[in-house]
Amino acid sequence: MADSEETTIIRMHDLRPAPGAKRDRIRVGRGEGSKGKTSGRGMKGTKARYQVRPGFEGGQLPLYMRLPKLRGFKSPFKKEYQVVNIDALVTLFPQGGEVTVADLVAKGAVRANKPVKVLGEGETSVAFTLKGVKVSASAKSKIEAAGGSVSEE
After folding, report:
1. What is the largest distance, in Å, between two alpha-carbon atoms of the chain?
2. Predicted confidence (pLDDT) per residue in 46-102, tens digit
3. Vertex 129, ends 128 and 134: CA angle to 5°?
4. Which residues lie below 8 Å from residue 88, measured CB to CB, with a gap of 6+?
5. Sign, CA torsion 22/23/25/31
6. What's the rounded Cα separation, in Å, for the pair 85 and 122?
7. Which residues pair with 150 in a beta bridge?
8. Bridge-partner residues for 135, per DSSP?
9. What are phi and psi of 83, to 5 degrees?
10. CB 86 within 8 A of CB 80
11. Coil, strand, or helix at residue 94?
12. pTM
């Protein structure tokens, strides 16, 4: 290193913000000398006096009043059954036998953790023993006519 070059070490107390980076905030409404009187809000009108509430559309009928009201109510305790018809049971279990919810889930007919109901669309000649499912009256009569049985447990 040559003797003519001098190295400078920057220290914490030498650091300064860039010129123009630090400016005082504008103090509005503190007298006529600087941003007094209307304080940058113009002359008249709602915005000059006070802020407008959220959702205000200048006297036009607001969106929340234009939209229709919700009618009725949904019961949080309503049980929604997954339905399986007799003709689907015949295609899934052609030889009949005992059918439970777990068997139906395994075959992909219904999803797990929801109640199942068997409806009476279709005909059956094989005997089904249904366990743990709800059954409609027409489905029950068709299953029992084919020699099957139903236990809703």
Report:
1. 113
2. 788 888 888 889 889 999 999 999 999 999 999 999 999 999 999 999 988 999 999
3. 100
4. 109, 122
5. positive
6. 7
7. 130
8. 118
9. -100, 140
10. no
11. coil
12. 0.54
